[in-house]
Structure of Murein DD-endopeptidase MepM/ murein hydrolase activator NlpD:
Amino acid sequence: MLTTRMRRLACISVAAGLVGLLAACGSAPVAPGFYRVERGDTLTKIARDNRQPVQNIVRWNNLSNPDSIEVGQVLRVVPPGGAATTSTAGASAKSGATAEPRSASADPAPAATANAPRISLVWPAAGTVIRRFDGKNSKGIDIADSAGTPVIAAAAGTVVYAGNGLRGYGNLLIIKHNADYLTAYAHNRALLVKEGQAVQQGQKIAEMGDTDNDRVMLHFELRYDGRSIDPSRSLPPR
């Protein structure tokens, strides 16, 4: 039998793996002039390795908090066309924080998503949108309806996670669509597909529920290159 300590360690390992999956599912190479943050990186180290002052990296990526860089985050490390560079290395912003595994709450960097290839989605569930994406407090959209409302795949892909190991998401499905995009479907009452299963756009994959939540709804996320982006830009008008 597993000891309490062994069970705790197993749960920590599962949760960490899911955070990593949400943050950077796949390992698509970044474009020239960009850098993907790795575990242990600091903004100072990234700036030094790319021979740039810290404040240039902060400005080019619109970083409101330089201490919050996270594993999987993609940063511009060369000046965008026409941008001025700062020659001095003394940055006023804090920059010594070590990169942590990426949580699902970070704001997408415009530099990383501005040229994202388009993906065509269908609405993952019927119902009323009660919360929209803002990139900070809301990393997806919330759709409310009755328990058991069908949840469907927003695009064709492969199920890379089906379970409830990530706190705050309840019964969760993650579908990988290609090297760049994945979608996440949280708080389901029931999961109808398994890990490794290929699904088609519009296929029923779950039933809406309230697991790990205080009301019945679907929390739906779209991720590009590991960063949350506004799903409504890829969904048809409703």
Q: What stands out?
A: The first helix runs from residue 4 to 24. The longest strand covers residues 181-188.
